[in-house]
Amino acid sequence: MGLMGRLAAALRGDQGKGNLGDTANPSSGLVSLFGGPQTAAGVQVSDASAMRVAAVYACVRVIAEDLAKLRPKLWRKLTNGGREEATDHPLHAILRRPNRHMNIVQLLLALGSAWGFRGNAIAVILRDDRGRPTGLWPVHPGSVTLYEAEDGTLFYAISRRTTLENAILRDVPIMVPDRDIMHVRGLTFDGIVGLSPLAQLREAIGISLASEQLSGAQMGNGANPGGVLKHPGRLGEEAAKRLRQSWNDRYVGAGNAGKTAILEEGMEYAPIGMTSVDLQFVEQRKLTIEEIASGFRVPLHMIGRMEKSAGNNSQEAGRRAYYDQTLMPMIEGFEAEFDTAFDLPDDLYVEFDVKRLLRADFKTRQEGHRTMYQSGALMPNEWRKEEGYNPTPAGDVFARALNTAYVDQDGAVVYVTPAGGNDPAAEPDTDQPGEDDEEGSDDDA
Question: Within 13 Å and on the Cβ side, how many CA atoms surround 110?
Fold first, then answer.
């Protein structure tokens, strides 16, 4: 649907369930066509203007890049409780190469950005002539309008934005049924459309935009709000115009800041208005950044604001909270949507490799491996493979601590491993005499 078609649909109220591109209310699409609604600060907040706010850009980038570095894999449950990669399912190939123009990292960057910024990550499931899934193509939430059918089926009306998207989706209908859509929702009230962080933080983003505009205007005027030149006599219109032009040419602008003004004929300069200190720009902008980071649930030190982090312990606590409260709900949502969108059977599931979050933290990673090895849960070769080293001939063994006590289901000790680590399961206990041995002893006697 073109611009005029979207405008006509907005004017007649034909919005279906909701336009996911709307920044204020999913049922109102008209205002989004003109840059978004105006905030109390007097500026309009749209996709483009919001992403020019450094804090917003940093938060969305952190969320999207952290999702993109966690490689999803398709697993099959085994009857013995283990698992193996399901390489025979079409989704396995899609998770490696979702389409001919993107790898999985680029796809997750696009979906993670949409999820973090708009609260909705949407991708079209590409299929072959037989209906088998062959790929995924991400679409901008702003180009999607959601409709409900009487039988409860959801349809996604996708407005093609580029020639490439037209070519990729040439066999996909304009009204795409929900069976051909992968839709990961963020915080939602109805389970259908996720709430947009852009809409919920619109006022804070508007304040930040207005502060940047006002600060930029001040810098353009030599970092002074303004002032007046007092002349002891009376100036005509032409003389006042020449004086103003001469003053602006010599002393206005960031390049002229700090220059000494030379006044003639008894003139005086008197500043008016408030200075940048009086306006408390620094404090206001810090508060706005904190509000935006809080809305995205991203720690300040992860977007370059170090003054709020007292030390390594504070940063580590913030990082753990970020992984637990921000990343994990998103990861769980993506894993569940892969299962639903591709109608996976009970023995197949998608899981993101969260261990990659520790890829840059060598010390913590090794401490975890060491704990698992010493407790008998990890073999040396598994450790080496995890770190990118080749296995060794003697590395397929488990370690076990000496003097380990074995207990039964009631907690009673049934065996204690002696020094040397003999395994009671591998070596039968020959120290306890049996009934036959007792009878033989009696006969001998």
Answer: 17
Distance CA 25, CA 196 (A): 9
Angle at the Cα of 350 from the Cα atoms of 346 and 356, rounded to 5 degrees: 150
Q: Which residue has the tokens 């973090």?
A: 116
First-to-last C-alpha distance (Å) of the chain? 104
DSSP secondary structure string for all residues of 282-329:
HHHHHHHHHHHHHHHT--GGGGT--TT--SHHHHHHHHHHHIIIIIHH
Q: Is 69 exposed, middle or buried (0-12, 13-18, 19+ CB in 10 A)?
A: middle
Model confidence pLDDT, tens digit, residues 226-236: 566 666 667 66
The predicted model gives 292-301 an average pLDDT of 88
State which H helix or E strand residue 48 sits in: helix 47-51
| Edge-to-edge strand list for the sheet holding 120-127 | 133-139, 120-127, 181-185
Interaxial angle between packed helices 54-68 and 328-341, expressed in degrees from 0 to 180 and rounded to the nearest 10: 60
| DSSP conformational letter for 162 | S
Number of continuous H segments (helices) and E segments (strands) in the chain: 16, 14
Give the DSSP letter string of 78-104: -TTS-EEE-TTSHHHHHHH-SBTTB-H
User: What is 196-215 written as a DSSP string?
Assistant: PHHHHTHHHHHHHHHHHHHH
Distances from the Cα of 109 to the Cα of 30, 94, 295, angstroms: 29, 16, 20
336 phi/psi in degrees, rounded to 5: -65, -35
Q: Determine contact, residues 156/138, Cβ cutoff 8 Å.
A: no
The answer to whether residues 73 and 353 touch, using CB atoms and an 8 Å cutoff, is: yes
Q: Show the CA angle centred on residue 321, arms to residues 121 and 331, nearest 5°.
A: 30
Q: Distance (Å, rounded) from C-alpha 255 to C-alpha 222?
A: 8
Rounded Cα distance between 98 and 72, Å, is: 12
Residue with tokens 């283990």: 82
Rounded to the nearest angstrom, the gap between the alpha carbon of residue 300 and the centroid of all alpha carbons in its chain is 15
Distance, C-alpha 422 to centroid of its chain: 50
Residue 406 CA to residue 443 CA, distance in Å, equals 36
Residues pairing with 405 in the sheet: 416
pLDDT digits (tens, 9 = 90+) for 58-85: 999 999 999 999 999 999 999 988 899 9
Res. 34: pLDDT tops 70 = no
Q: Which residues pair with 44 in a beta bridge?
A: 38
Tell me the C-alpha distance between 415 and 424, whole Å: 8
Closest CA to 330 of 104, 112, 139, 75: 112
